[in-house]
Amino acid sequence: MTVGMWHDRAWKSIEDIHRRLPSDATLKQREQALKDGYPFGQRKYWPYKAWLKARRQYLAKYKPTRSIPDSLLSRWK
Hints:
By secondary structure, the protein is mainly α. The chain has four helices and no strands. α1 packs across α3 (about 45-60). The N and C termini lie far apart (about 50 Å).
């Protein structure tokens, strides 16, 4: 199985986990649900790497973005 195929399977599992979560789930709840829902057995090799990539992509939507403080922005004006 290729890395892309592992990633597709990981993403499908993450979509299933997402559907079971409440819409107002916190970031910590989402992270825990992903941890508990890991579908590939051992956490190593290509399946785990593909899972981590899909997990990062999913969680990026729910992590707060950092803003640049005004004090730093004023230096570039």
